[in-house]
Each structure stands twice: as C-alpha cells, then as structure tokens.
Amino acid sequence: MPRCSICSKPAIAYIRYQRKYLCRDHYIEFIEDKVRRALRKYKMVGKGYRILVALSGGKDSSTLLGALAALRSEFGYELVAVHIDLGIYEYSVKSKMAAEELAKKLEVPLIEVPLSEVLGTTIPELANKGRRPPCSVCGMVKRYITNAAAVEVEADAVALGHNADDLAVYNLKSFLSQDLEAISKLGPKTESVEEAAIGRIRPLYLVYEKESFLYAYLKGLPFLHEECPFVDHRQMEVKLKEVVNSLEEERPGMKIQMMSKLALRIKDYPKPQGKIGRCKYCGLITGGDVCSFCRLTKKALGEPMGPKVREYIRSKALKLGLIPRRL
Ligand code: FES
Ligand code: ZN
Ligand code: ZN
C-alpha cells in the first residue's frame, strides 16, 4: 500500500502533478494550503472582511465554505452564506438540505432565498413564461440574487466555487470564439463597482474538481451528489472538458498552469465596454436602464421583482443580526 510522502501513514490520494502520496490529514492540509496561497497571492481577502459565499449545496460550494471556514481565524474575515432555493423539484429540496446542514456545521449564518416564496414561482416556470432555456434563466437569477445579497449585507466580496477544471473550460471556450472580454472575467478576482456590484473572488482557482470532491468527502462536509436535471450533456463545455482532460492526462498540472498564467495576463484582456448604470427599478448594476432580472420578471410575472428580492434579503439579514453591519 502506498504511504504518505510526508508522514508515512497509509496514503489516500496521489497528486500526480507533484508526484506525491498523501494521507487523509495531509491531503486536507494540502487543499487548505492551496486555498490559503490563492487568497494571499491574489489578495482576495483582508482582515475584517465580510465574505458572502454562494452556497448551492453542491461539492464545490461545500469545499469552498469548508476551506474558507478552516482559514477564517487565520485571515480574520467573517463568512455569510446565501442559498437560493430554485424550485427545481427534488434536486432543490436536497440542495437546500445540504446547504442548511453545512452552514449549521460550520457555524456560518445562512440567508435562504426560496424563489417560490419571494417571486411566487420557480426556475422551470420562470423559464417557461420567459421563453428561455432554464439554465440561462437560472444563471442570471443566481447572479442577481447573490449580488443583491452581497449588497444588502455590505459584503466586501462574493466567493464563488469555480474550480480549475471549470475555469480552464470557460477559458478555452471563450478563446475559441475569440470572446476576449469573457476571458477578462476569468481571473481569480474582480473588483466591486461602487455599491451596486460587489467584487467576486474564486478561492478554488487552483483546485481541481476531483480534489474539491475528495476534500468535501474526507472532511465529512454535507453536499449533494446529484446533478441538476437541466444539465445539457451535449453542450460544447462537455466536449471541451474531454479535450482538456486528455491534455491534463498527458501533461499533469496543465490546467493549473493555464489558470496561473491567465491570472498573470488578465489585465491585458479587453474589459467589456459600454456604460454602467443603475436599474431604474432596483438600483443595482445594469448596462441599460433596467437590469436583466427586473426585465425578465416584468415580462414573465408582470412586475419587476428586484425591489422585492432586495427587501426580502434585507429582512432576513436583519433577523440574523447581520445588518446594520458593525465594523
Ligand atoms: Fe440552474 Fe440547473 S442549477 S438550471
Ligand atoms: Zn501524512
Ligand atoms: Zn433591477
């Protein structure tokens, strides 16, 4: 049986790109150290920061919250999580359970936003009424609500659970279509735009998908193993993932190298142009007069729902004692 390269206990993982075996404890340390180094290297956090974690209930967001919680006293930041109940049948019921269990275990205050209660509808219904594919509606709704929550709790940054595998695929996809502006958004960190769009950080920037899964599993963090029923396996991303995986197979560490190099060059990519304004209904960021969320909800539900979402989150944050924020 292979032994840990550090302490000689039985190994549970082999890190190919570093040619080392690790036992359970050293594996956990290895991942937390990767997150620690990413937080430092890319200046993602500071003492006294309030970090809002988008908690879906899947493995990456569980690993993200688990690793950030493990490092919280070392860096002196505070964590708040937000979970959006999308109303996608059994999948959402189980995701919500995993998110609640995890937040409780790690003692992180959790703001829950059930769409059926706040909007009176769910993602499948909203997609139907808005005549758009569920995944695109869902992505937009999640981005909007996460940002709204970050604005309401006066977070300094939103932490996203994107891992190196996801990012390498987005990077390649954007490169193939020469969407250089999209690449400019794939760095480890984006800055806030006044108080209307809170900057995002990606602490799992250099963590592989498999590593993220193993970390959540070994630490006993609750997470949902199932995929969303709307995942489209014919998507270009799935094919590109196979390509990137086969390159990684030949050159272990390739994805991490790709993302580290991108982080160094990210400033050279063109940023999206156009005016940045405030939505006339909800006051959050938009490229026009009305944000995509208020536009979609007005079309599908007859009313722009941004203000209601903000109000709902504010009342939850008040009940949790998160606002007014004491600095
Ligand atoms: Fe949003 Fe699947 S999680 S559509
Ligand atoms: Zn060991
Ligand atoms: Zn709006």
What does this structure look like?
The protein is of the alpha/beta class and 327 residues long. The chain has one domain: 3-Layer(aba) Sandwich (Rossmann fold). Helices cover 49% and strands 10% of the residues. It has helices at 24-41, 59-70, 72-75, 89-106, 115-118, 123-130, 134-152, 164-176, 180-183, 209-218, 236-250, 254-265, 292-301, 306-319; strands at residues 13-15, 20-22, 50-54, 78-85, 110-114, 157-159, 200-201, 277-278, 285-286. The strands form three sheets. It has a five-stranded parallel β-sheet with strand order 5-4-3-6-7, sandwiched between helices. Strands 1-2 form a two-stranded antiparallel ribbon. α2 (59-70) packs parallel to α4 and α7 (134-152) crosses α14. It starts with 12 loop residues before the first strand and ends in an 8-residue tail after the last helix. The mean pLDDT is 95. It binds FE2/S2 (inorganic) cluster (FES) and zinc ion (2 copies). One zinc ion (ZN) binds next to α13.
Rg estimate, integer Å: 20 Å
Stretches where pLDDT is under 50 for at least 5 consecutive residues are none
From the N-terminal CA to the C-terminal CA, the straight-line distance is: 52 Å
Total number of helices: 14
Computed structural class: alpha/beta
CATH class: Alpha Beta
Cα shape: globular
Strand order of the largest sheet: 5-4-3-6-7
Total domain modules: 1
**What would you say the CATH architecture is?**
3-Layer(aba) Sandwich
Q: So, the CATH homologous superfamily?
A: HUPs
The total of beta strands comes to: 9
Bound chemical compounds:
FE2/S2 (inorganic) cluster, zinc ion
Overall average pLDDT: 95
Helix content: 40-55%
Task: Tell me the major beta sheet.
Answer: 5 strands, parallel
